[in-house]
Amino acid sequence: MSELYKTAVIGDTASVSGFAALGLSVFCETAPERIAKLIDRLAASDFAVIYITEPAAALVSDTIKKYRSSKLPAIVLIPAVEGNTGDGMRALHESVEKAVGSDILN
Fold first, then answer.
1. Among 7, 16, 65, which Cα is nearest to 36's?
2. Which residue would you say has higher pLDDT here, 77 or 85?
3. What radius of gyration do the chain's Cα atoms show?
4. How much is the pLDDT for 1?
5. Which of 23, 67, 89, 91 has its Cα between 20 and 30 A from that of 102?
6. CA atoms of 73 and 43, how far apart (whole Å)
7. Environment class of 34 (CB within 10 Å of its CB; exposed 0-12, middle 13-18, buried 19+)
């Protein structure tokens, strides 16, 4: 029997509310302490992927770093409605470099 994992999206309402139409679990949250506790709770549950807006991720960078070496959940930074800060691409480059030994995306 295969285990079913879930996907979450965390961020401000304007940036994440549309993801509910895709069947993802949406959490509209902008307070750092609440985001950190939410990530810990989702990680302890059946969430394999957590998408988080770049501004929300910036508020809880220590919490996100805690899960970088974990198999699950994968925490993926996404742009917010106000624009792309580049943090998501930097994190992707770092993850690829760590996995394959060099940054093959450049």
1. 65
2. 77
3. 14
4. 41
5. 67
6. 6
7. middle
**What global pTM score does this model have?**
0.82
Residue 106 in domain: no
CATH number at residue 17: 3.40.50.10580
Residue 69 belongs to some domain of the structure? yes
Position 38 pLDDT exceeds 50: yes
What is the domain extent for residue 65? 6-100
- Asked if 10 and 27 touch (Cβ cutoff 8 Å), the reply is yes
Output the pLDDT for position 28.
97
Residue given tokens 């994968």 in the structure block: 74
DSSP states along 18-85: GGGGGT-EEEE---HHHHHHHHHHHHHTTEEEEEEEHHHHHHTHHHHHHHHTSSS-EEEEE-BTTB--
Taking each helix axis as running N to C, give the angle between helix 61-68 and helix 32-44, from 0 to 180 degrees, rounded to the nearest 10.
20
